[in-house]
Write a structure and sequence with these properties.
Blueprint: H1 2-18, H2 24-76, E1 84-85, E2 91-92, E3 95-98, E4 102-108, E5 120-128, E6 131-136, E7 149-155, E8 157-165, E9 171-172, H3 178-183, E10 203-210, E11 214-221
Antiparallel strand pairs: 1-2, 3-4, 4-5, 5-6, 6-7, 8-9, 8-10, 10-11
Length: 224
C-alpha cells in the first residue's frame, strides 16, 4: 500500500509541473491573435477619426463658402445708382465689372461706420492667386492716396465670373455698357455736378469655380 501511495504522489507532481506554463506554440498563437485584434482596433479607431476630421473640414469649408456668398448677397441686393469719382477725377459707374479687374459697386451702408459716407459704401471683389478678396473704400469719392481695405473671404477659387441681365433682357459679360455711360445724365451742372446716376443690371449671375466643390452659380435680383 505504501508503494502505491508513492507512485500516485509522483504522478500528481508531474501533472502540476506540466500545468505551470504555456508552450512556445501557445505563446505564438496568443501573440498573433493579440496582434490581429490590435490591428483591427487601430483601423476602426483610425477610420472613425478620419471620418470625424473629414466632416469637420467639410463643415468648415461649407461655412466659408456660405459666408462669402452671404457677403455678395448683402452687397448686390443693396445697390444704389450712385457713380463715384476715382483718385484722378474720372467718373466710375455705380456698378462696374471687368473680368481682369473684378467688381466694384456702390451700396447702402448697413450701419453708419467710419468707412461709409452719407449712408453709402463702395465695395469691390477681386480674385488673386485663387483667393477671393472683398474690398471696401473709406470714402465714396476718392483722393489720389485713397486705398481700399482688402479682406480674403474665400480660398481655393479657380474662377470668379459675372454675367448681367440688362434692360433689354440680354445677358452681357461686362458692365456698364458704353451706351449706358454715354447716355447717363449728370445731376446739377458745372463743377458742383453730382456724379451720374447710371443703370443697374436687372439680374446678376455669379459663377464660382472651387477646387474642391466644382461650379457654384447664384442669381441676385437688382434693385427695381
Amino acid at each position: 500500500m505504501r508503494d502505491i501511495h508513492l507512485i500516485h504522489s509522483s504522478s500528481n507532481k508531474g501533472d502540476k509541473k506540466r500545468q505551470q506554463g504555456f508552450t512556445l506554440i501557445e505563446l505564438l498563437i496568443a501573440l498573433a491573435i493579440s496582434a490581429i485584434i490590435s490591428a483591427l482596433s487601430y483601423q476602426a479607431i483610425n477610420g472613425a477619426v478620419n471620418v470625424q476630421t473629414n466632416v469637420q473640414e467639410n463643415a468648415q469649408r461649407m461655412a466659408e463658402v456660405q459666408r462669402a456668398v452671404w457677403w455678395m448677397e448683402q452687397d448686390l441686393v443693396q445697390l444704389v445708382p450712385r457713380g463715384v469719382q476715382d483718385g484722378f477725377g474720372s467718373l466710375l459707374s455705380a456698378y462696374e465689372y471687368r473680368a481682369d479687374l473684378g467688381l466694384e459697386l456702390t451700396r447702402i451702408a448697413e450701419l453708419p461706420t467710419p468707412r461709409s459716407s452719407g449712408g453709402l459704401l463702395r465695395v469691390g471683389y477681386q480674385l488673386r492667386d485663387e483667393t477671393l478678396y472683398r474690398l471696401t473704400w473709406p470714402v465714396i469719392d476718392r483722393a489720389p492716396d485713397t486705398k481700399p481695405r482688402r479682406v480674403a473671404i474665400l480660398t481655393g477659387v479657380k474662377r470668379f465670373e459675372l454675367r448681367f441681365l440688362n434692360t433689354k433682357n440680354r445677358w452681357v459679360t461686362s458692365w456698364p455698357l458704353e451706351v449706358d455711360v454715354g447716355s447717363a445724365p449728370s445731376i446739377g451742372g458745372g463743377q458742383n455736378a453730382t456724379p451720374k446716376k447710371m443703370p443697374l443690371p436687372k439680374v446678376t449671375e455669379v459663377l464660382l469655380e472651387l477646387d474642391d466643390l466644382g461650379l457654384l452659380k447664384r442669381l441676385f435680383m437688382g434693385v427695381s
